[in-house]
Amino acid sequence: MIQKSKILLVDDEVESCQALSHLLTQTGYSVETSASGEEALELLKKQPFDLIISDLCLPGISGIDIIKHTKDDCSEIGVILITGKASAETAVEAMKEGALDYITKPFNFERLKVQVTKALEKNRLVLENKYLRQQLLGRYHFDNIIGTSQAMQQVFSRMGKVAGTDSTILILGASGTGKELVAKAIHYNSPRKNKPFLAINCGAIPADLLESELFGHVKGAFTSAFTDKLGKFEVANGGTIFLDEIGNMPQQLQVKLLRVLQEHEFEPVGSTRKTHLNIRLISATNIDLEKQVKAGQFREDLYYRLNVIPIHLPPLKDRHGDIPQLARFFADKICKEMNLPQIKIDADAIQAMEVYDWPGNVREMENIIERTIALTDSLIIRCEDLPSNISQSLPKAPTGVPQITTKGINMNQAIAEIETEMIKQALSLGQGVKARAANLLKINRTTLVEKIKRLGIEN
């Protein structure tokens, strides 16, 4: 059942209030009435409304006072004012305070219906935008970036320290480590969170188009410039610009970017009009900019402008402890997106993923889990369901119990060989950490250390 939009009607003229309430109810709205501004404010405390239609002149609290109250306590509610004493001054004051419309008595009900429809649509868009922004803030909260490893804790610590500042940030890390996710998290946890966040991949746009994409152009600036175009910097003014793959920016454009960062203003291509900028710049690269500077491929002065606060994102192979949590997070996320029942990942599959080096980092993991879920008919992802380069990364277990022949067998030596192989496997799975290996073997760490010494195992 579709819920009716709820309107609060405020008018001290009883007959007028009843008539308008009847008309609005007949149109399909749910209507509450109030004979005074004071009573209206009490109703607003007790229940939500989508729109207020109020007489301007009320005993005590006026229609203008109601608008002021809604701006402070429930800004998403629109107000339409009605009055029998129209004047240019009161109309201007009402609109300045934020009234959606100002209608004089006797009014045309058809016109009022149009205004009510527009006001409710505006209210719906405001609430939808507020909800989407809350979703973004929740999605890009620091807690939603997965990682309990020491390397990621250091990243989170630095993100927390810089989010509230306007400092320029350079995010360094291999492809697929989540550089844009970090940039968005910093933006949506900063004072600029209600302003635009725009990302531009400097390596994906042809060099001759990149300047226009960033700074815009005027009509006739070049052959295909048939109209004026706003650049990303102007669109994002007040917010954050994220320049990904900054190392691929052409050198002539590096000069312009440096000037923009120094002077906080720019000119669109083909124009002499200067636009002032109030923007935060976050850039990212998966290449060594210092080497590019030394090779003369990247401007040294721009590098120092960009590298005010560096954030280094570790590759996934250096944060193996995060792999089980990441894998389960992606599995849950993808199942929700595909509207599938929750799928589990068994221990062997997790172990295989822990051993694998992940050259494509977190992005590769997400893609592989999505592919595996799409292709499996089971509610459990097993090791054999994973691509062969991952499933075959587990070390092979020793084959069975040694055979005893008529010549007999050195049992102590055979047991030592089996123990050695098992310890090597555990150390491999535990990334060389003895505590992890001991946990896998279900023995104390001190016992494991003694066995490693006794068996002469190199670690």
TrEMBL record:
<dbReference type="GO" id="GO:0000160">
    <property type="term" value="P:phosphorelay signal transduction system"/>
</dbReference>
<dbReference type="InterPro" id="IPR027417">
    <property type="entry name" value="P-loop_NTPase"/>
</dbReference>
<dbReference type="Pfam" id="PF00158">
    <property type="entry name" value="Sigma54_activat"/>
</dbReference>
<feature type="modified residue" description="4-aspartylphosphate">
    <location>
        <position position="55"/>
    </location>
</feature>
<keyword id="KW-0804">Transcription</keyword>
<protein>
    <submittedName>
        <fullName>Two component, sigma54 specific, transcriptional regulator, Fis family</fullName>
    </submittedName>
</protein>
<dbReference type="InterPro" id="IPR003593">
    <property type="entry name" value="AAA+_ATPase"/>
</dbReference>
<dbReference type="GO" id="GO:0005524">
    <property type="term" value="F:ATP binding"/>
</dbReference>
<dbReference type="InterPro" id="IPR025943">
    <property type="entry name" value="Sigma_54_int_dom_ATP-bd_2"/>
</dbReference>
<dbReference type="GO" id="GO:0006355">
    <property type="term" value="P:regulation of DNA-templated transcription"/>
</dbReference>
<dbReference type="InterPro" id="IPR009057">
    <property type="entry name" value="Homeodomain-like_sf"/>
</dbReference>
<dbReference type="InterPro" id="IPR001789">
    <property type="entry name" value="Sig_transdc_resp-reg_receiver"/>
</dbReference>
<keyword id="KW-0067">ATP-binding</keyword>
<dbReference type="InterPro" id="IPR002078">
    <property type="entry name" value="Sigma_54_int"/>
</dbReference>
<keyword id="KW-0597">Phosphoprotein</keyword>
<keyword id="KW-0805">Transcription regulation</keyword>
<dbReference type="InterPro" id="IPR011006">
    <property type="entry name" value="CheY-like_superfamily"/>
</dbReference>
<feature type="domain" description="Sigma-54 factor interaction">
    <location>
        <begin position="145"/>
        <end position="374"/>
    </location>
</feature>
<dbReference type="InterPro" id="IPR002197">
    <property type="entry name" value="HTH_Fis"/>
</dbReference>
<feature type="domain" description="Response regulatory">
    <location>
        <begin position="6"/>
        <end position="120"/>
    </location>
</feature>
<dbReference type="Pfam" id="PF02954">
    <property type="entry name" value="HTH_8"/>
</dbReference>
<dbReference type="InterPro" id="IPR058031">
    <property type="entry name" value="AAA_lid_NorR"/>
</dbReference>
<dbReference type="GO" id="GO:0043565">
    <property type="term" value="F:sequence-specific DNA binding"/>
</dbReference>
<keyword id="KW-0547">Nucleotide-binding</keyword>
<dbReference type="Pfam" id="PF25601">
    <property type="entry name" value="AAA_lid_14"/>
</dbReference>
<dbReference type="Pfam" id="PF00072">
    <property type="entry name" value="Response_reg"/>
</dbReference>
